[in-house]
């Protein structure tokens, strides 16, 4: 497993070791002990999620407030997305900054998005199957959404020719300046 800390070092890119042979491939998509040894981060996941989206769909920027804040280990098993994590921890030196990575079926990269970050992704392929593990359960009452195109955050979404396809909820995403953040 190769671990790279991104420009916001709490966000970690993971490149698993893949064993290919005549049958296909095998890799450990998560191993708590190996993850801890490589990153120093001790994780206990409680929920696994799978979403499927078509090209041009954008989901985000989502987070849950404490006490239901979620860390997410995200990956793509079909297609390709541009994945984004925004630091919304008021006391952080990178508050309001974002990092992004392309996660694809081919590169098998994963992103660790810690609690205290808003998260979203744009689908670049015809279809994308997006899988993620979370450290806390879904809590609808505590979920929040910041607008994907907030001018203060200025996330640079790639290949965005026109407006992405958004859920009704995501069309109501708040401006960053009005969003509840982590103290
Ligand atoms: C996220 C989630 C949704 N749901 C339900 C609520 C709703 O009826 C339906 C679709 O939910 P959403 O529109 O919120 O799904 P989606 O827009 O895919 O939400 C996800 O987006 C990405 C970017 C994240 O970071 C995730 O944490 C999550 O917020 O699924 C659950 O039952 N459990 C869950 O954990």
Automatic annotation (TrEMBL):
Pathway: Carbohydrate biosynthesis; dTDP-L-rhamnose biosynthesis. Its EC number is 5.1.3.13. One of its GO terms (molecular function) is dTDP-4-dehydrorhamnose 3,5-epimerase activity. Keywords: Isomerase. The record marks 138 as: Participates in a stacking interaction with the thymidine ring of dTDP-4-oxo-6-deoxyglucose. Gene3D superfamilies: Jelly Rolls. InterPro entries: RmlC-like, RmlC-like_jellyroll, RmlC_Cupin_sf. GO terms for biological process: dTDP-rhamnose biosynthetic process; polysaccharide biosynthetic process. GO terms for cellular component: cytosol. The keyword Isomerase applies. It catalyses: dTDP-4-dehydro-6-deoxy-alpha-D-glucose = dTDP-4-dehydro-beta-L-rhamnose. SUPFAM superfamilies: RmlC-like cupins. The active site is at 62 (proton acceptor), 132 (proton donor). Catalyzes the epimerization of the C3' and C5'positions of dTDP-6-deoxy-D-xylo-4-hexulose, forming dTDP-6-deoxy-L-lyxo-4-hexulose. NCBIfam families: rmlC. Belongs to the dTDP-4-dehydrorhamnose 3,5-epimerase family. Homodimer. PANTHER family: DTDP-6-DEOXY-D-GLUCOSE-3,5 EPIMERASE, THYMIDINE DIPHOSPHO-4-KETO-RHAMNOSE 3,5-EPIMERASE. This is dTDP-4-dehydrorhamnose 3,5-epimerase.
């Amino acid at each position: 497993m190769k671990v790279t800390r991104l420009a916001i070092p709490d966000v970690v890119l993971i490149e698993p070791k893949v064993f290919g042979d005549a049958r296909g491939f095998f890799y450990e998509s998560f191993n708590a002990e190996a993850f801890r040894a490589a990153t120093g981060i001790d994780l206990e996941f409680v929920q696994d999620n799978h979403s499927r989206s078509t090209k041009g769909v954008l989901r985000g920027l989502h987070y849950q407030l404490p006490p239901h804040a979620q860390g997410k280990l995200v990956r793509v098993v079909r297609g390709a997305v541009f994945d984004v994590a925004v630091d919304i921890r008021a006391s952080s030196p990178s508050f309001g900054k974002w990092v992004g990575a392309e996660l694809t079926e081919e590169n098998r990269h994963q992103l660790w998005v810690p609690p205290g970050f808003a998260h979203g992704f744009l689908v670049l392929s015809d279809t994308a199957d997006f899988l993620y593990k979370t450290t806390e359960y879904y809590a609808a009452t505590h979920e929040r959404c910041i607008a994907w195109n907030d001018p203060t955050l200025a996330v640079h979404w790639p290949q965005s020719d026109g407006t992405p396809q958004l859920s009704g909820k995501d069309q109501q995403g708040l401006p960053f300046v009005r969003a509840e953040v982590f103290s």
